[in-house]
Design a protein that fits this description.
31% helix; alpha+beta; four-stranded antiparallel sheet; 350 residues
Amino acid sequence: MKIGLNIFRLFLFSLLALFFSGCAPSRPRYEKILGTVCFVNLYENGKKSYYTEIFDRLNQIDSEFNLFREDSELYRMNQKAAYEDVPVSDDVFHVLSTALFISDLSGGAFDVSVGPLVKLWNVNSDSPHVATQAELDAVLPLVGYNNIVLDFQKKSVRFKKAGMSVDLGGIAKGFAADEIAKICKKHKVSRAVIDLGGNVYVYGEKEDHLFWNVGVKNPEFPDSPPLVKMSLPQNSVVTSGIYERYFEEGGKRYHHILSPKTGIPLENELYSVTIISDNSMLADALSTTFFILGKSKSLDMLPVFQKEFNTQVSAIFIERNHDVTFSPGFPYESMLLTEGWQEVPKKSGR
């Protein structure tokens, strides 16, 4: 069995996304938190106290959202919520309520109640498992975001079915990136790069007042230089793709993006979806949502999410047939760079 998950390698190649940034990193700090390597570079504003505050906050978020820590708030909630109303922290309630709102808008394409499926397939581990149809039939009735009940006055959570569990892995890192950006703003940090296992947030502006240059991986050769180069102002960039976390068994690849309807890794026309937005939590959730919806439905839904969250959202769809589609009015300079796919400049939509 081949397992396509190596956290340190993911960290190294997420840094490749910033290969063209034009700013040489200085005094960065990184730790393994939230199941990945979290990297922060505050450049000339990199005071020890700022880094301490940032990584203390990341560790606090891990203690709330880590699905695999028995002392985490999410683990406790999953154990008790089918039997009683479980009060949760402001952080968990905020992220969970946002997730359910996105679930409603997407018609269930984004569904954090997939916890039983995640546990069944166990893709993010050293011992993944190909689920049988009988196992899926037993677990799928437990999947359904409408069976999660929130009490907004008490800030509590209740499940309608025993055996349900919530997995916030598709949105929590985006929330964490937004929290780090708030700390940077509080301390008037002029520029920073935040990389939470591939959830990249470029904060502020470069020393020469130019935009940041950020890359999107080539899904066929993720260890090679990026496929797409973009020039961005302050923004979050999040990609979901079939090459990120997977395992192979019997000559077939099984990736980590599971369909809430069928319970199996989703197969469609897409290799990956990249979302660009200054709302990293939204970008994190939409990268998965749009992968599950597919390109056509996602492009139809994009204006809805922009309106509901009152923010700019742009998307890049990389397809198996080598088509690369930018969302309408894509506002950033970009270029295809891969040697195998012809280099084509993409003009700004501004």
